[in-house]
Amino acid sequence: MSLLTDQNSRDADTVSKNSAHEEMNSVHEFRTHNCGQLRADNIGQFVRLSGWIHNKRDHGGVLFIDLRDHYGLTQVVIYPDRAFLKKIAHLTKETVICFDGLLAKRSDENINNKLPTGEVELVADSFTVLSESAQTPFAVFPEDPIPEEMRLEYRFLDLRRKKPHNNIVLRSKVISHIRKMMSDMGFDEFQTPILTSSSPEGARDYLVPSRVHPGHFYALPQAPQQFKQLLMVAGFDRYFQIAPCFRDEDARADRSPGEFYQLDIEMSFVTQEDIFAPVEKLLHNVFTTFSDWKTDQLPFERIPYRESMLKYGTDKPDLRIPLEIHDVSELFLNSGFKIFSNTVKEGGVVRAIPVKNIASKSRAFFDRMVEFAQSKGSQGLAYLVWSDSAVKGPVAKFLQADTLEQLADRFGITDGDVVFFVSNTEQVASKIAGEIRVHLGEVLEIIEKDVYRFCWITDYPMYEYNQDLKKIDFSHNPFSMPQGGMDALDNKDPLEINAYQYDIVCNGVELSSGAIRNHRPEIMYKAFEIAGYPKEEVDERFGALIKAFRYGAPPHGGIAPGIDRIIMLLTNEPNIREVVAFPMNQKAQDLMMNAPGAVTEKQLRELHIKSIPVS
Questions:
Q1: CA atoms lying within 13 Å on the CB side of residue 446
Q2: Does the structure show a pLDDT above 60 at 11?
Q3: Out of 249, 290, 318, 425, which residue is the most buried by the measure of CB atoms under 10 Å away?
Q4: Mean pLDDT over each residue of the chain, to the nearest integer
């Protein structure tokens, strides 16, 4: 189809333009090039471009159009002798339009070195409006702040903006890169079912009613956990999948409600270190390929769980913060500060966070730190300040000289240093101290910049005590192999048993949990028995896995790094919704598609279910 051309606008005397128009019927209907492709080498060529009107500028009767497509921007110039100038001038931004013309060199003063196409411009000779745009509810350009609800309702417009558009393109490139690396490392990609049975994975299932089996439901997989283990039992050796996972859980900044994607991995005949090696190689390669930030060299640091909880107050430590937490309970056991000494005598702990060279901070700074600690559940925040060869602070008068001296020796204290203290039960003190550590990193601006700091958290406890139910419960992953096997389950205190479980963490973000699996039926029955599950319940809930293990299962293990979180870190975005093409809001609603939505009575009858209004 040839383009509609205003005959009066043509320069009949320009031979080059006549020659260009002779080419029109032999070129593609919509474009000869994309909007990010043209360079100085193309000057003088006939060009046809299609795209969105990104911006318009009128300079003394000469109209400049920034034409945008997926690949970039090209400037289109329309001179006053073109009869269609006024018509185009009245078109709204985001109208899709096609231009024909010759490519020209920009004048020296108009060259835009910020654009790859900044040396050239298309001199428009004809045009066709391919799709006129209504007035948009917000501007695609410039990229001003927009309420999130509006962004999600008009996500197709939001994704035209440069930053979110580039985030989704990066996501595609990273996934493609991961697939190639996994194949190069000998992994095979397999797909596992989306409609499956419900199983406890730590979150609520999304249930799908069966039409042909009234009263029965499928569940969308929280993860392909059992399927990937069954693949190992089936004799496959190295599996991976970019797997969709579905969990009915609340949103967080680093967690999408409803669905997410993970790089699901499982390997046979492996130890924990055999899992770490390819995952480290992959993550190091991805982060060095797609970011210019510094990335930790291999191997990544290994930190046992209990050490991480002590030193960082969390099993997701941000190693960019040069502060550590220390246990000083024994120093306060018989101290004059009764609040701390009594807590220690009752089984609690005292945790200290030494910080260098902040004694000169104002009283208001320390008051704000106390308020922050209280907002996190602490009764207060004790601190000592070493300044002018003296020790000051709210608790200094309660402490003997030898206690102060021991603290100074332990932490290498010099004038200008401060030590903060938290006292409570071990679990509560760890959590509060961990949050204070991160807050200090932020307010003191001492978090290392432009770097990815990775670590493995290892040796998770197999069990924990559930205070609410007053029983022993699994602490992490019930399918994990206990360290020490059956002997440990038979002879050790369950709360002292570690599992072959591990997390990979980057900059305080948990990318994945994984484990060496429990592949022995007798060990699995015993492990679940300790957590209060009788053999019959294990058979009912995990029947396929138990049955498979009876027919010879290899030692195996795996992990599943989150794709969304990897992209979130690579783009330095604070919220995971910025790296998902069509995310839900915090209430698990798709505002663009109006999901979840009502269904008809006919649909409900077909599924043999009834909707009951909430009173």
A1: 15
A2: no
A3: 318
A4: 93
CA angle 98, 106, 109 (to 5 degrees): 135
- What residue has token string 């309970």? 329
Instruction: Please tell me the number of Cα atoms within 13 Å of 458 on its side-chain side.
Output: 15
Q: Does 589 have pLDDT greater than 60?
A: yes
CA distance 172 to 562: 14
Structure tokens, 192: 């596992």
Distance separating alpha carbons of residues 370 and 367, to the nearest angstrom: 5
* Edge-first strand listing for the sheet containing 556-559: 188-189, 238-247, 258-268, 556-559, 509-516, 501-506, 454-458, 301-304
* Among the ranges given (36-50, 329-343, 552-566), the one the predictor scored with the smallest mean pLDDT: 329-343
Count CB-CB contacts under 10 A for residue 314: 21
d(CA 127, CA 91): 12
* pTM of structure: 0.91
Instruction: State the Cα torsion 52-54-57-58 to the nearest 10°.
Output: 20
pLDDT at 612: 87
- CB–CB of 104/142 below 8 Å? no
Contact 192, 227 (CB under 8 A): yes
Reply yes or no on whether the pLDDT at 512 is more than 90: yes
Q: What is the DSSP string of 100-147?
A: EEEEEEPPGGG--TTSTTTTEEEEEEEEEEEEPPPPPSS-SSS-----
- Token pair belonging to 153: 């309702």
| Cβ-based neighbour number of residue 583 at 10 Å | 25
The amino acid present at 116, given as its one-letter code, is P
Q: Provide the CA 456 distance to its chain's centre, in angstroms.
A: 17
Residue 49 · residue 31 · CB < 8 Å: yes
State how far the Cα of 431 lies from the Cα of 377, in Å rounded to an integer. 9
DSSP symbol at 459: -
Take residue 441 and report the two structure tokens written for it. Answer: 């990193």
**Tokens encoding 509:** 């973000």
- For range 291-301, the mean pLDDT: 97
> Which residues, in sequence order, are CB contacts of 412 under 8 Å at separation 6+?
none
Say what the pLDDT of residue 16 is.
47
pLDDT at 22: 56
Q: Which long-range contacts (CB under 8 A, 24 or more apart) does 66-70 make?
A: 66/141, 67/35, 67/97, 67/99, 67/122, 68/35, 68/160, 69/34, 69/35, 69/36, 70/34, 70/165
First to last CA, the chain: 61
pLDDT at 2 over 80: no
Res. 576 pLDDT band, cuts 50 70 90: very high
The answer to whether the bond into 596 is cis (omega within 30° of 0) is yes
Tell me how far CA of residue 4 lies from CA of 97, 99, 130, in angstroms. Answer: 12, 10, 11
Q: What is the rounded average pLDDT of the residues 417-433?
A: 97
3-state secondary structure of 509: strand
Over range 181-207, report the average pLDDT: 90
356 in Cβ contact with 416 (< 8 Å): yes
Of residues 459, 493, 452, the one with CA closest to residue 476? 459
What is the pLDDT at residue 7? 34
Residue 203: per-residue pLDDT: 79
